[in-house]
Inverse folding.
């Protein structure tokens, strides 16, 4: 089991995310996404999207876009992705965590659906 877990608070629960697992998933997924780019070119955008989800406290991704662009320019390092190429990568990573968390909450009855049956 990987010990690199990061926690994020939401209004309902605290969730743990295995960052190494998430990064491995996306490195595999984006391996051939755009010819000419290395998987390492995607890493800063992936980490930005994951971090945005964990620190966003339920904020909508679009609401964070401007500050994320500033952050990306600061952390991108040698990545050859400009912001317009990095944005969909960061958003995909954020969306994956948001969707996984929503499914978990539905399964737990956190939205009160169990009371409707």
């Amino acid at each position: 089991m990987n010990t690199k877990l990061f926690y994020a608070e939401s209004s309902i629960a605290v969730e743990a995310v295995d960052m190494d697992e998430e990064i491995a998933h996306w490195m595999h997924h984006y391996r051939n996404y755009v010819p000419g780019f290395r998987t390492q070119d995607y890493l800063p955008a992936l980490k930005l999207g994951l971090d945005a989800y964990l620190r966003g406290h339920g904020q909508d991704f679009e609401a964070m876009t401007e500050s994320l662009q500033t952050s990306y320019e600061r952390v991108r390092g040698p990545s050859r992705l400009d912001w317009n190429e990095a944005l969909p990568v960061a958003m995909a990573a954020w969306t994956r965590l948001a969707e996984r968390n929503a499914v978990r909450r539905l399964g737990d009855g956190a939205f009160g659906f169990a009371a409707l049956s």
In short: The radius of gyration is 16 Å. Strands lie at 5-9, 14-18. Confidence is low (pLDDT under 50) at residues 1-7, 110-117. The first strand starts at residue 5 and ends at 9.
